[in-house]
Amino acid sequence: MGQFDHLPPPKRDLQKKTGYGIPNVVQATRGCKANCDFCSIPAAGYGWQVRPVSEVISEVASIRSRRIVFNDVSMGEDMDHFKELLRAMIPLRKRWGGLVSTRVFQDPEVPGLLRDSGCVYILIGFESLNNVSLKFIKKGFNEYQEYRKIIEILRENNIILMGCFVFGFEEDDETVFEKTVDFVQENRIDIPRYAIYTPYPMTQSFLRLKKEGRLLHENWRHYDTQHVVFRPKLMSPEALDEGFRWAYRKTFTIRSSFHRTIKSGMNFFITFAGNLAYIKYIRRLELEEDRILGIG
Question: Whole-angstrom Cα distance, residue 248 to residue 286?
Fold first, then answer.
C-alpha cells in the first residue's frame, strides 16, 4: 500500500459555478485492491494508495458547499483508513456520496459511521445475480445472497442506493434481463443502473475476447458500457443490445419508478427525480440507429 500526500489545493475558484453537475469533488484514495477482469483500473497499473485523513478533512472543510462527492473507485479497500475518515467527517456536518464495494458491510461499524458522517448516497457495483459469473470476472467477494441484506441496511440508515448491474457475462442468456429487473423492482433499489459488459483495452477481458476472436471491432467510441462490442457466449449481440434497452424501458416507467422510490422517506423526491432523469436517456438509446458496429 502506498500513500499520496501533500497535494496542492485545487483552484476551485477557477471552476465555472454552473459548469459542473458535481463541482465539489474530493479524492481520499487511488486505485483499487480488487482485480476485476473488465475494470480499467488494474489495467492502468494504479495500484492502491491512501491519502492522509488529515489532508482529506482539511480539503473537505475548506469547501463552502455542504455537499461533496468522493470520486474514489472504491473507498473502503483499507477498512482502517475508511473508518478513520468517516469518524473525522462527522463534526464537519457535510452531506456526501461515493462508491464502495459490498465488502465494507462485513464490518458492523460501517453502516452507523456512514449515516453519522453524512452519507447521502452510495453506489455499489452488484454486477450480477449469478455467483458463477461474479467469480469468473474475479469479483467473487460479491455474493448474491448478501445483496438484500445490504439493501436493507442502507434503507434503515436512510442512505440512497445506486445499484449497478452488468449484462453480457459468460453465464448470461436471454433470461438475465427479466431476472435482474424483477430483483431491482422487488427490492426497491432506489436508482438502478445497467451496463453492457465492455472489455476496455488491455484489460483481462479484452485480451481474452480478442484471443478468442469475439471482439466485433475496436471502435473505441463505442467502448462505453452502453454498446455491444463483442459476441456474447449464450446470446447474439443483437439480443444483448435489445435486452439491455428493454431493461431500461421496463425499469424506468413512471409506475415502476414510483413503486421503487415511494418508501424512500425524506429521500423520495431525490430518488424519484433521479429515476425520471433516465427517461430522457432512454429516448436517446431508442433513437440511435447504428448501435452495433461490425455486424452485417
Answer: 11
Say which residues have a Cβ less than 8 Å from residue 169's Cβ, sequence separation at least 6. Answer: 128, 130, 133, 136, 137, 197
Q: Does position 260 have pLDDT exceeding 90, yes or no?
A: yes
pTM, whole model, 2 decimals?
Answer: 0.94
Give counts: helices (H), strands (E), the chain.
11, 9
- The CATH number of domain 2-287, selected from 3.40.1000.20, 3.30.540.10, 3.80.30.20, 3.30.420.10: 3.80.30.20
Q: How confident is the model at residue 3 (pLDDT cuts 50, 70, 90)?
A: low
For residue 195, list its beta bridge partners.
Answer: 166
Report pLDDT digits (tens) over 168-208.
999 999 999 999 999 999 999 999 999 999 999 999 999 99
C-alpha cell recorded at residue 148: 438484500
> How far apart, in whole angstroms, are the C-alpha atoms of residue 268 and residue 283?
24
Query: Hey, which bits of 71-202 come out as E strands?
Result: 95-99, 119-127, 160-167, 191-196
Rounded CA-CA distance 151/190 in Å is 9
Sketch the domain layout of the chain as residue ranges: 2-287
Amino acid at 27: Q
Cα angle for residues 40, 128, 234 (degrees, 5° grid): 90
Task: For residues 165 and 172, give the distance between their C-alpha atoms in angstroms, rounded to a whole number.
Answer: 12
> What's the mean per-residue pLDDT of the chain?
93
**Structure-block grid coordinates of residue 183:** 430483483
